Every structure is written in structure tokens, then in C-alpha cells.
Amino acid sequence: MAKKEFQAESKKLMDMMINSIYTNKEIFLRELISNASDAIDKLYYKSLTDTSVGMNKGDFRILLTRDKDSRTLTISDNGIGMTREELEQNLGTIAHSGSLDFKKDNKDDENIDIIGQFGVGFYSAFMVADKVTVISKAYGSDEAWQWESSGADGYELEPAEKETAGTDIILHIKPDTETDNYDNFLDEYGIVAIVKKYSDYVRYPIQMEREKSRQKPEPDPKPDDYKPEWETYTELETLNSMVPIWKKQKSEVTDEEYANFYKDKFSDYADPARVIVSRTEGTANYNALLFVPSHRPYDFYTKDYEKGLALYASGVLIMEKCADLLPDYFSFVKGIVDSQDLSLNISREMLQKDNQLKLIHNALEKKIKNELHAMLANDREKYESFWKEFGRQLKFGAYSDYGMHAELLRDLLLFWSAKEQKMVTLQEYVDKMPAEQKYIYFAAGDSTDRLAKLPAAELVMDKGYDVLLLTEDVDEFCLQIMRTYPRKDAEGKDGTVEFKNVNSGDLGLETEDEKKAAEEATTANKALFDAMKDALDGKVKEVKVSTRLKDHPVCLSADGPLSIEMEKVLSKQPG
Ligand code: ADP
Ligand code: MG
């Protein structure tokens, strides 16, 4: 049977495209600037091999012109332009992308960084304009053409006048309504803000006349009653910074430049604690510039805090906070990822869940982990102040998901050492353990001072063993879920050592004889202990002789997997 082609209600399709693809109207400017940049790229590429083009890289620019009276915003480029046929093909055919064809034809060339691919971005202009006029002259052609449309109804083509190659896109901006603000797209500051947000790293200058004011020259001689006078004038200004700082080599950028970029971009008053530059690793193709802040954002431990990295595709902003790029336990990291290889969805506001993203996530996770390790090893003081701000998040990461990430994070954790009177890593604790010590001891409670005075902690310390003093609720969960830490045995073979709460169960300190003596004393005084247990009326499970006491007459001890402290935490949780 002969196959039939699908018919499309192009009017409806256009309408859908214009009004339902994008969440943000302001995106139209990102799309039109991206097209201008692509057009320039194509002519620039040509100029590299064809000297008759007669253009240098510095000659290319994208010009924005606004006219409040006629309500027009014009985006002009001096790129490759379009012939009559190309206007029909590219702007008259939904989902036809001349840029994608170009990219395919030149796919072996690394210098090409063309943005377009879906063939729909242009129509986003109709979100803000009730009429769009395109005047274009293709490079190498001697005629110019005008394409004009009011959206779904179709378009008109006619010959036009234009001196040089390139394209002018003239948007007739819609009138303001009660619900929608369009005047912003004619406003100087409104436009500057949108360009900065989405197109700051477009490789060619985006220019616009800006209004300035200056003092008029003073007359000479100056009259006695002279008052300074001011005048306004306009000046062509480049709005974008063009070169993405993350594409520069680390050696080309000063610490101060990184710090300023960070503070500016992520609205922080303080310098970052660490700058991380990361590039393509293995099969993940990207440039990343990440920052570890030096202090917690005020909302960090609240629901309002949104983790994520700004995601760019070929220098154009796709998402301000892409959460999928960062694991939760590194949610404090800020920064930027730029990649050419993302499978964007058609609005270019989101990604298809793709493998590339996962690869970048994994590469960044490893990189951040290594950088934190380096900070711990080389700049302990800085690491400890980082730990004060974000340590809780790492401990939480080690313990969440049933300890899935414990192994990855365990060597980044710090705990207070009773013996050393400072923060130590688990490795440092284990390195100092006497050979016969059976456990990593810890005590959990409200303050390190009180914990150090616990009878059980004193007992362990008397043996010459260290005790980790845990004062945050998440601490003990974290150790409990890790259960053990690697330690080589006496013969140097790989083994593990368990964590032990000084308040729970058998501390492994007594000799067999001491244990036996305690059991005998308990049996011999059964009547006394039973009486004590009755007097405490169900508040304790058992009363017995303890080998743990030194100066104190009595201690409480938990029996079972949870310590008294953990039981307290759990009983505080709702539900
Ligand atoms: P995409 O950019 O994804 O290809 P668009 O709808 O934004 O889709 O643009 C469609 C096509 O129109 C582009 O691929 C390009 O061939 C052509 N085009 C758009 N704007 C310009 C321009 N300023 N100069 C030259 N060609 C352009
Ligand atoms: Mg486009």
C-alpha cells in the first residue's frame, strides 16, 4: 500500500509552538541572538578559507535597536544572510533548521559551535511581537528580500533594499495588557538584563545605544553664578562579556578574577573557599567552573534552598539551576557547566534525561570529592572552617540512602577527638590506635565537655584510647550506618574496625577474669539488685555489677543497637 504523508494544520501547529513551548517570554531574545550568532559563525567560517569575504573577526557584531515610539526592537547581524529560497525554507517551514544542516555538513570541524538545531526558535518572536519583519541579504547575492508575518496566518515575501550582507529582524512589540508586560522588551534596562542573563557568553559583541549623562563643559571664563549643567547623550555599548571565564585555562585567570566572577554571578559578599576548574573527562564533554562557598547561604538548611549548577549549551544559558548535575551531599557547590553535547528538549529550556548529563554528574562528583580531599590535606585550617559550614551536609550524605555514599564520603568527615582536643579524620584516629584496641570509641551527647566526663568515656581514656565526642544528632547515625572503618591488622592484612558507643554493650576493655568476677558478684548479690530493680519500677531492665566504673558509683547503659542518645533523637522526631 502506498504510504500517505501526514497533513498538518499548520496554523494550529504554529499557535501551539508560539504559546506552549516556552515558559518564559523573554526567551525570544535568546533565540534571535543565537540565530544571529550562528549566522555570523557561518560567514566567519567562510572568511577563514575565502579571502574575498574581506571580514575580520573584529568586524562582526549583533546590533540591538529599540524605538519606543514605533514600538520596534530590531536585531541586526552582519552574518551570512538568507536568499529568497532560504527565507522560505528556514522561516517558512516549521522545524526546518538551516543551521542543523550546516552543522552536519561541517561536523568534523572543531571550531564550529553552532547553536541552532530544532528549527523553531525563530517563531518565539511571536510571543512578544504581533508582526515580524525580516530583511535579509545573503552573502554573495546582490538582492535583498523582505519576509513579513503576523504569526499563524502565513507570510509575505517581497524584494527589499539592503546595502550589506546580513539580516535585520524587526519585532513590532505587542501592546502592554493587564496581565502581560511587553514594554519591558523596549526598555533599555529590561533588554540589558535579558542579554546578560542568557547571552552574556555569545562569542560576538551584542551592542546597543545606551543613554548616558555627562556634565556640560564649563564656560571660560566661568561666570560667578555658574551652576554645572548636565546633558544626555547616547553611546554604543557592548552588553555581553563574550569570553566565558570557564573556557580559559586556570593559569590565565587570577584568583581575584575568579572571586569577582563568583561574587557577581552568585550574589555572595564573600570570596569562595575553593575554585574548581574541570574539563572534559573521558566521554563526558564539558567545561565546568565550580565554587565551594566560604559560608552557608542563610537558607541552606531549609526547604527553600535549591541546589544546582547553571547549565549552558555552547555559551547560551539553558537552565539557571540544573539539579541533576550535583549529588545532594555536595548541594553547597555553586557554578557553571557548559557543554555542546547535551540533548536539549525543543524549547532548549530543559534536557532530555540523557546519558551525557549522568556522565557529567559523575565526573563532577569525583572532581569535587578530590578537591575537598586536597583541601583537607593541604589547607587544614580552611577545610575545618569549610567543615563548620557544610560538614553536616556531608555527614547527612554519608548516612542517607542507607549509607550508599558512606564509602565515598567517609574520609572527608571530621569528629572531635577527646584525646587530641581537636577535629580528626577517621583515618587519623585509626592511625593512632594501639594495636590491642578493638574498637573506634565514641560518645554522643550535647557538649564535648560533658561527654568527656562520662564515666564510660573516662574508662576508655584511662586505657590510653581516644574517644570521638559527637555533638550533632546526625553524627551517631552516620557512624552506625558505616558500622566499620578499614584498618590493617597486626600482620598488615586488610581488615576493619567497628565503631563502639562507650555507653552501649560490651566495651571490649576487660580481661576474661574481670568479666567473670563481675558476673559472680552479680549472682552473689542477686537479692539486692532485684530490690533495686523493683524500686526503679520498670525504668530499667536490669541491675548488675559493672566493670566500667572508676570513681563513679553507678552508670546507665543501653542494651541493644541504639544508644541512649540515639533513642533520645528518635523520640524527638514527630510521628
Ligand atoms: P534553529 O536555530 O534551531 O535552526 P530557528 O527557528 O531559530 O531554528 O531558525 C531557523 C533557521 O533560520 C536557522 O537554522 C537558520 O538557517 C535560519 N536563520 C534564522 N535566523 C537567521 C539569521 N539571523 N541569519 C541567517 N539565517 C537565519
Ligand atoms: Mg535558532
UniProtKB/TrEMBL annotation:
<feature type="region of interest" description="Disordered">
    <location>
        <begin position="209"/>
        <end position="228"/>
    </location>
</feature>
<feature type="domain" description="Histidine kinase/HSP90-like ATPase">
    <location>
        <begin position="24"/>
        <end position="177"/>
    </location>
</feature>
<keyword id="KW-0067">ATP-binding</keyword>
<dbReference type="InterPro" id="IPR001404">
    <property type="entry name" value="Hsp90_fam"/>
</dbReference>
<dbReference type="Pfam" id="PF00183">
    <property type="entry name" value="HSP90"/>
</dbReference>
<dbReference type="InterPro" id="IPR019805">
    <property type="entry name" value="Heat_shock_protein_90_CS"/>
</dbReference>
<dbReference type="InterPro" id="IPR020568">
    <property type="entry name" value="Ribosomal_Su5_D2-typ_SF"/>
</dbReference>
<dbReference type="InterPro" id="IPR036890">
    <property type="entry name" value="HATPase_C_sf"/>
</dbReference>
<dbReference type="InterPro" id="IPR037196">
    <property type="entry name" value="HSP90_C"/>
</dbReference>
<keyword id="KW-0143">Chaperone</keyword>
<comment type="function">
    <text>Molecular chaperone. Has ATPase activity.</text>
</comment>
<comment type="similarity">
    <text>Belongs to the heat shock protein 90 family.</text>
</comment>
<keyword id="KW-0547">Nucleotide-binding</keyword>
<dbReference type="InterPro" id="IPR003594">
    <property type="entry name" value="HATPase_dom"/>
</dbReference>
<keyword id="KW-0963">Cytoplasm</keyword>
<comment type="subunit">
    <text>Homodimer.</text>
</comment>
<keyword id="KW-0346">Stress response</keyword>
<protein>
    <recommendedName>
        <fullName>Chaperone protein HtpG</fullName>
    </recommendedName>
</protein>
<dbReference type="InterPro" id="IPR020575">
    <property type="entry name" value="Hsp90_N"/>
</dbReference>
<feature type="region of interest" description="A; substrate-binding">
    <location>
        <begin position="1"/>
        <end position="348"/>
    </location>
</feature>
<dbReference type="Pfam" id="PF13589">
    <property type="entry name" value="HATPase_c_3"/>
</dbReference>
